[in-house]
Amino acid sequence: MKYSIFYLIKGNAEKYHQKLVKEVGPKFGERYLIENPLPSHITIKVPFEFEKHRIKKIERLLNEFVKKQKLSKIKINGFGNFDRHVAFLKIKPSKQAIKIQKELLKGIKKINEVKLNGFDIKWHPHSTISYGNTKESFNGIWRYLKKLEKPKFELNFDNITIMKKQGKYWKVYREFKIR
User: Fold this and answer.
1) Which of 70, 89, 124, 152 has its CA 20 to 30 A from that of 79?
2) What angle do CA 117, 91, 173 make, to 5 degrees?
3) Does the predicted TM-score (pTM) go above 0.85?
């Protein structure tokens, strides 16, 4: 089975993100996120293969891990892109949120069956809006986003969620609350 670990974006920031995804991709002929919908999220641990009966190890780790954490903040502050290919909401995590992600990776690393990836280690938190598969589509997407008012949201980093890929869709497997 394929799993990933996310922070789920909720509330007005989620509504704003979902509206952009549904608006931007189709407008510029980039339908990937429409045809392969994801909840609004920030990836904490990139996808990994794990046997279904072994996911209990990750569940136990997260259950204990969140009990030791304190709420921290995450800010959404504008738009960004990767290599003029992926457009996203810019995320500015607090020092505490960065610490939570790094500590979680240390715990995951101890579960030998789960390998860390370069994207896990060099974490660049973001929330994808669209993929621009051609220079023209990306340029159109980017011009459109730059005309919008800069989004500003402050969120509580209050959940760590295991996602499970079922067919071509990612579904919430289990959410762990940070209080």
Assistant:
1) 70
2) 55
3) yes
